[in-house]
Amino acid sequence: MRVLIADDHTLFRDSLKSLLATRDYDVVAEASNGREAIELAWRFKPDVVLMDLAMPEMDGLEATRRLAAELPEVKVVVLTAFDEDSNLFQAIKSGAKGYVLKDLEAERFFRLLEGVARGEPALTPTLAKRLLDEFARPERSAIQTSSVDALTERETEVLVLMVDGVTSNRELANRLGVSENTVKFHVRNILDKLHLHNRAQVVAYALRHEIVEPSDEG
Q: Does residue 103 share a domain with residue 126?
């Protein structure tokens, strides 16, 4: 199997490449962001792209959507540390053929990859059940899926800060004690869940629907 690794952490890519080599997987290319992953996928036409989610320039969800549309023969498997239902659901809806957590044991990881080659989804039983439960629910209205209930606790924190005027990635990262890439990932999730296109719309929406209120500071 020919594999492309897309992850912005060099040490993780090196470790994963070494692990794959123990089973004779051919790592044909490595990308450090979503845009590069798409370019390299066009160039090398791998069988599978192992796609991280939080990456600079273009995140893994957008890259997955693009690859599913442009190169449907290339199977994308999300490989991430984010164990949140919203990310799982969005990844599968974006066209990913699987969703694998980075703390998975090596033997289970390889079994899932072997399954992908046979056309099977790369999902552990736990994630598969969560996915089935979600898709088995009655269709919800746009206003329900756009409510604050759809946001995670961390995404709500980001939203509150944006309403308070903290809108740059650097400022948000400093306030939350996370990386700018992680901030971009959370902001993208907020935009997707609220069906909006930019941060200004997010702030206006939050105030208009009284999802959060601005603080009295400043």
A: yes
